[in-house]
Amino acid sequence: MRHVIFILVIVATTASFAQTATVKSTAPQAAIAGHSSSLHMTVMDVFNTAGGIIITGQIDSGSMTNSGTLCLNSSKAGDIEISVLALSVKSRLVETANEGDIFGVKVSGVAKGDVSKGDTIAKYCD
User: Are 40 and 62 in contact (CB under 8 A)?
Assistant: First the structure.
């Protein structure tokens, strides 16, 4: 049952991201720079869609905004700078995801094969 619910959330999240393919961020500049410096997100899964790469996970600490750059700490490829294109929490596009949120993040700058369950996302690369 748990897998069925997770799959339904991913399908709904993927549909939400499909709507963002041509949408530009209108977030104020302060929000773009607003990723928490203590950001730590653990990757749960990764999907390759027509609209790009979607990484699902949970924010363990800090917060993430719907634009800007972050660092994927990949177990396969080391530290990779990624660009955040959109965030979706509970199948709704949002501007910010906060500590405890389970969500999807649409990114560019990384291949699906470089992302694994258990990898982390942080504000800065070491």
Answer: yes
Q: What is the pTM of this model?
A: 0.72
Of 6, 13, 12, 34, residue with least CA distance to 95: 34
CA distance 2 to 72: 27
**Residue appearing with tokens 């660092």:** 71
Q: Where are the domains of the chain?
A: 2-21+29-122
For the domain covering 2-21+29-122, report its CATH number: 2.40.30.10
Name the residue among 42, 84, 34 with its Cα closest to residue 59. 42
Residue type, position 116, single letter: S
Residue 51 zone, left/alpha/beta (φ > 0; ψ -120 to 50; rest): alpha
pLDDT band at residue 17 under the 50/70/90 scheme: low
At residue 112, the 3 state secondary structure works out as helix
